[in-house]
Each structure stands twice: as C-alpha cells, then as structure tokens.
Amino acid sequence: MIFLKLILTNLRRHRIRSLISIAGIAFSVAAMLTVVTVLQGAIGMFSGILSSDSEIIVFERNVSDLFFSNVPAAAVAEIASWPTVAHADPVLFGIVSSADHPIITCFGVTAADARIRKATWLFGNRLDFAHHSDDVVLGQRAAEFLGAKLGDHVPIGHGRFHVIGILKTANGFEDGGVFMPLSSAQSFFHKEGSSSVITVKLRNKDDDAAFKSMVKKNFPDLIGLEDAEFSRSYSQFKILNATAWAVGGCGLLLGGLGVANTMIMSVFARIREIAILRVNGFSRVQIAAMIFGESAVVSLLGAVAGLLTGTCLLFALKLVPALHGYVDVATRPVVMLAVILLALLTGIAGALYPAAYAMRIRAVEALRFE
Amino acid sequence: MNNLSVQPNAIGRTVVRAEDVWKSYDDGAIAVLKGVNFDAAQGQTVALCGPSGCGKSTLLHLFGGLDTPDRGRICVNNVEVNRHRNLVQLLRHEVGFVFQLHNLIPDLTLEENCLIPTVAAGIDHRTAQARLHELTDRTGLTHRLGQRIQKLSGGERQRTALCRALMNRPRILLADEPTGSLDEHSSGLVFDLLLDIVATEGVTLVMATHDRGLAGRCDRLLEMHDGRIHE
C-alpha cells in the first residue's frame, strides 16, 4: 500500500509533468487506435467484397494487386463445372472517375453474383440487371455523390451509363461503387474475356484443400486461397497493416520519449529521497520497481485516456458524411489489447534508463551534504 | 597504528567492530580515517565526539554498509560488512539510522514514513502496525500518526525519525548528530527518549555528536581527531 502510495505521491507531486506525460501517451494511443482501426476496417471491407457468398478466391498467381489479375473466361467456365463447386462468380475490378470524384470502384459482375442478388435494392429491379450493355447499378452513396436517380444517364469515365438500380450495402467500397454487367466492364476496361478474380462457393467446405490442388494442377498460372488465407497473405493488406502499426508505433515512441523524460526528471529531483529509501532497507530492485511502477501508472492512465479519445475520434469519423461506409469503427478487442500492451511496454522502456540511474544512486553520497 | 580497541563491558557481546579501518576521499587526497579500531558491545551507548570533518559520520556510514573502507575490516554481528553479501539485509534488520536532518519523506504521513522499513523488509501489516503503535506510544506521537511531515515540529520530526529507525528492531542504532538541528529543550527531550528506548530494547547506540553534555550521558565517550579514535 505504501509502495503504491510512494508511486502515486511522486506523480501527484509533479502534477503538470505527469499530466503532460499521460497526455503524450494518450495522444499516441489514440492515433494508433484510429489509424489501425480505420485501415483494418478498410481491409475488412475489401475482404468482405471478395468473400460475398463464397469461401475461396481464385486469381492470377504472383500479382501485386488484384486490379492487375487476369483470369481467363475459360477458367471460369471450367471451374464452375467442377462437381465440388456450388457456384463460381467472375468479378472484374476497375477504377473509374467522374467529375469531382477521381476514384470510383467499379465491379463487373454477372446477374447471378451475390452482390447483386443479396443486396437491398432501394430502386429498380435486380431482374433488369445486365439486359443492356450501358446499364449500371449504383451503390447508394455513389448515387448521392453522382447526384443520380433511377433512369438517369450519368457520365462515368469515358462513357455514359443508364442507371437501372440503386442498392444499399453496408460495405463502403460497394456502397460507393458502380456495378456493371461483366461483359460491359470487360469492354470498358479493355479486358475482353477475362475477370480479376473468381469467387467460389463449394458444395462442401471440407473440399477446400482438394479444390485448391485442382486449381494448381489445372491452372498453374492461377491460385486459389480461402478468404481468411487471402486476407493474411495478400501483400497489399500486409503493407497496409504494417503501415498502420508503424505509424502508430512512431506515435507511441514519441509518447515513450515523453515518459522517459518525465521519469528522468523525477529521479533527478529526488535523489535524496531514493537515498533515504535505500538507507531504510529498500533494495535496488525495489527502487527500480518503484520507478517502473510510476511509468506503468503513467502509461496505463495514458492508454485508457487514449482509448477513450481514439474511440470518440472513430465515432466522429463515422459521422463525417464523406467517409460514410468507408470507416468501420468497430474496434477489435485484440487491437485494444495490443495498443494497451504497447503503451505499457513503451512506458517501461522509457523508464529503463531512469530506473538504472536510480539503482546506482549511492546513499552515502546523496546524504553526505545535508 | 592507533590501538584503542575497547573491551566489551558486561552488557553483552561485541556487535560492532572496526579493525584498522582507513578511508580517504578524492583519490586519497583527503584521508579521513587512519587506522581506526573500535568495538561496541550489545546494549552499549557510545558517543563519538570531535571536530567537523574528523570522520565521525564516515565511520557511521561504514558501520551501516553505506560506504566501504579503503583498508581494514568492519564487522557487524561478526559478519564483515565490506564483504557482506547482502548489505540490504544489514540495513533492513541489523542497523537503523538517525540523521541530523530527519530525512523523512515530506509528502507522506508520519505513519507512512515509519512504515517504510517494514515495507522494504516485507513485514506483514499487522506486525508493522503493532510495532508502530508501540514506538509512537513511547515517543508520544500516536495522536500525530496521520499528520504529514510538514505539519510536525522539529522535535516531532526527529522522534519520527527515531521511530522509523527502530521499526525493524535493529540491534544497532547509528545516530549522526541526532539532536543537532533541535533547540536545547527539544534536544534534551529527544535524547532522553533515545536513551530510554535503546536501554529498554537492548539496542547498541553509536552516536556522533558535538554536544559533550549529551555525549557524557553515554556509556562511553570516544574522541576522534586526526583520523583516529581516542577514548
């Protein structure tokens, strides 16, 4: 109890200094939480697009980005005919632009695709999809920013398209995207006869290994991965994840330097007090524990404040209309735990030198000049 | 070599011993102790008198393991301090320090200051509280337990320091000018208490002081000058 009080007393004694350190950790934690959550949310949404009503994604082996993947129509037809496959849907990804909106994701899909079948149609009829080559269906948000209504003709890229439906989806990329009949998209993006990926649903999920082997055997240029496997191994996701943690880590490093500075000042300011504790039987380990305890309290308080700030920030981002559907603010417990652990580790790392210094304080020298 | 080793009196066995102890500072430029021999028996009260800088405090620090001699041996309870493998145990259980300035932690209460040695030694709360009340009853501080140090008088602070030094029932109390910062009246009161408690508890007191009146009340008065002890 007194040990804890010694820790808290010192933090209370220099309130402003302690608060600045806590704020430093809090801002770092908030930044990390926000960046990681937003990017992981984006990754989750992209994964969601790929895994709509499917378990396996087939795409061109060794491509850096799915936009560059080419899967021939012959492969789609053959894979769809395999007895283990319930359905295989080709999807062509493209990026188009319109006035004021330089990036709009475009999905070239068939009428049988789950994105069309299972979406909530606000306007139009899904049975009308893919009857004409200039037909498009807009996501709700895309319709809003394009100012388009059912039956309008909208300029997208170098063409004009007839809006035959507006659908609602929770996925930001789909909600802000344009759905074209696959053949129209192939023509529009000059990728006749090919798609970016095939999303495959198996009759029996246990056949996944056999399915992947068959893909490898029959189409050496293609690869089949389960959705989760794809999310883990896709280099773009890995880069995004690493970037998020690196940016957050840099923030936390700055917070850690703040803690280190506070703890160094704290030790320098009470060399005599540490000497008194030593004379009264405190071991070097106990002195170090006290210093680490102080930094742990600062880090924990900072982490809690940072989590609260970060969560508020994420909710604020969710309320920004321009980001609607693009930001998934659901913070994963594992991310929160990782952020708290990193904050604690940073605090402890920040206290390493101060603790080592405090352990080396010689009571006789500190007390000699009274 | 000074050879004024004192035979322990009838009070008890030798608990503190210095044998030909040398200590200097600034790479030998300032020689403070020049072959000091000393011993004190259990329950004995010993006063070290001498001019400032003669090495009284240095000798106390050596007895408490806070410093090491350049040469010679310091033994506490027949264990050589400068070869003591665990100086922490010495400070926790064998010796207690009282300084001229009380050296209390100002942001803690009287009670919390006194409990510091018990926290260091891992003594259970109930035992520590019982000991605390025993000592504060004797020193008249029980009604001030919850007070912060800033609100205590000089005499109360020094009595608190005395309680803290005795919390873990050390066998040796090392007091460096324990009444040096007090007025004559308070000084007398604190010293009376000090003698009373060490006598009751059988603690060996080794005290550095300039006050010959107080020193004269100890069992032995040793003069220190020129880096040596003269009884």
Question: Any descriptors?
Answer:
heterodimer, A: alpha+beta, ten-stranded mixed sheet, two-stranded antiparallel sheet, 15 helices, B: Rossmann fold, 7 helices
Q: Give a count of the beta strands of chain B, DSSP E runs of length 2 or more.
A: 10
**Percent range of helical residues of chain A:** 55-70%
Could you please say which CATH topology of chain B applies here? Rossmann fold
First-last Cα distance of chain B: 15 Å
The two chains with the largest interface, and their residue counts, are: A-B, 26 and 28 residues
- Work out the radius of gyration of chain B: 17 Å
Quaternary structure annotation: heterodimer
| Residue runs with pLDDT of under 50 for 5 or more positions of chain A | none
Q: Helix amount of chain B, in percent?
A: 25-40%
Structural class of chain A: alpha+beta
- Report the sheet-strand fraction of chain A: 15-25%
Q: Tell me the distance between the termini of chain A.
A: 29 Å
**Percent strand of chain B:** 25-35%
Give a brief outline of the structure.
The complex is a heterodimer of chains A (370) and B (231). Chain A has helices at 2-13, 15-50, 73-81, 114-117, 140-146, 172-175, 182-188, 208-218, 227-233, 235-269, 271-279, 284-319, 333-350, 352-360, 363-368; strands at residues 56-60, 71-72, 85-98, 101-109, 120-124, 135-139, 153-156, 159-168, 178-181, 194-195, 197-202, 222-226.
What does this structure look like?
The complex is a heterodimer of chains A (370) and B (231). Chain A has 370 residues and is α+β, with helices and mostly antiparallel strands. Chain A has two domains: 2-46 and 237-368, no CATH class; 62-220, no CATH class. Chain A has helices spanning 2-13, 15-50, 73-81, 114-117, 140-146, 172-175, 182-188, 208-218, 227-233, 235-269, 271-279, 284-319, 333-350, 352-360, 363-368; strands at residues 56-60, 71-72, 85-98, 101-109, 120-124, 135-139, 153-156, 159-168, 178-181, 194-195, 197-202, 222-226. In chain A, strands 1, 3, 4, 5, 6, 7, 8, 9, 11 and 12 form a ten-stranded mixed beta sheet that branches. Chain A has a two-stranded antiparallel sheet with strand order 2-10. Chain B is built from seven helices and ten strands. In chain B, a hairpin with a 2-residue loop joins strand 4 and strand 5 (79-80). Helix content of chain B is 34%, strand content 26%. The two termini of chain B are 15 Å apart. Chain B has 231 residues and is α/β, with parallel strands linked by helices. The longest helix of chain B is centred in the C-terminal third of the chain and has 18 residues, at 184-201. In chain B, strands 6-7-8-3-9-10 form a six-stranded mixed beta sheet, sandwiched between helices. In chain B, strands 2-1-4-5 form a four-stranded antiparallel beta sheet, covered by helices on one side. Chain B has one domain: Rossmann fold (3-Layer(aba) Sandwich). Chain A binds chain B through residues 1-3, 5-6, 9-10, 12-13, 272-273, 276-283, 286, 362-364, 367-368, 370, and chain B through 57, 61, 64, 66-67, 88, 91-93, 97, 99-101, 103-105, 107-108, 112, 115-117, 119-121, 125, 164, 168.
